[in-house]
Amino acid sequence: MADPSAIAARLKTISHRIETAALAAGRDPAGITLIAVSKTHPVEAVRAALAAGARVFGENRVQEAAQKFPLEGASLHIIGSLQTNKAAQAVRLADSIDSLDRAALADAIDAAAQKTGRLPELLVQVNIGDEPQKSGVALAAADPFIRAMRARFGGRFTGLMCIPPEGRDPAPYFRSLAAMADVHGLAVRSMGMSGDFAIAIAAGATHLRIGTAIFGARPLPG
Ligand SMILES: *Cc1c(COP(=O)(O)O)cnc(C)c1O
Predict the structure, then answer these.
(1) Mean pLDDT of 196-210
(2) Separation of 210 CA from ligand 1 center, angstroms?
(3) How many domains does the chain have?
(4) Which residues have a Cβ under 8 Å from the Cβ of 157 and sit 6 or more positions away?
(5) Cα–ligand 1 centroid distance for 115 (angstroms)
(6) N or C: more exposed end of the chain, with fewer CB within 10 A?
(7) Which residue range forms the structural domain that includes residue 75?
């Protein structure tokens, strides 16, 4: 159940913690975008966060996202690994696709964009810990893939996203994603979640993807 006042209170707390972490890192809090990750939570929870001032939302499944969005005043990021056969729906629905990680998906996004005349902003997801089971472009393939996406999508491709390995200090992984973005002149670095966003801010995150700390625990893994 969505409890609007609890969501509003948690959003306020997290916004304050983001501001504090930004200032501690010598950064302007205005340079950091909070993506409220609403996966598994009902549209009432999204509406509560929207009413409390959240403007950017993240969902990891396109079909689930389509049940809640579009919503007036809200922008939507698809942050989960995206099946090629869901690309057209993602292109129609999302303001940003943050999980571009392979050529076949780029082809599908491009084809859908040609058809609809609409191209969301795009981030390349990098498998920053080179974990075999994880989505994201492999480290060895990242530089050429990023160059190819820049050539293909131009200014609509704005940055990189990563999820560091669990159970390890995320700082070196965040720093290496930021360094990769620097090398390629990409402004957006989406990194940091409920448990590690302050570390991500210190490493140069521009976008934080925060679910649990805003919406509470998820009923199911998602
Ligand atoms: C669920 C999810 C998040 C949010 O995780 P929390 O720990 O709940 O903040 C961030 N990024 C991705 C890709 C996710 O799937």
Answers:
(1) 98
(2) 6
(3) 1
(4) 100, 121, 122, 123, 124, 149, 150, 186
(5) 31
(6) N
(7) 4-212
Over residues 21-51, the pLDDT tens digits come to 999 999 999 999 999 999 999 999 999 999 9
Residue 209, classed as helix, strand or coil, is strand
Pocket test of ligand 1: the residue of 193, 197, 220 to mutate, having most ligand atoms within 8 Å of its CB, is: 193
CB burial class (10 A; 0-12, 13-18, 19+) of residue 95? middle
Buried b (16+ CB within 10 A) or exposed e, 60-78: bbbebbbebbeeeebbbbb
Q: Which residues contact 145 (CB under 8 A, 6 or more apart)?
A: 101, 103, 124, 137
Mean pLDDT, the chain, whole residue set: 97
pTM of the predicted protein model: 0.97
Decide if 118 is inside a domain. yes
CATH code assigned at 45: 3.20.20.10
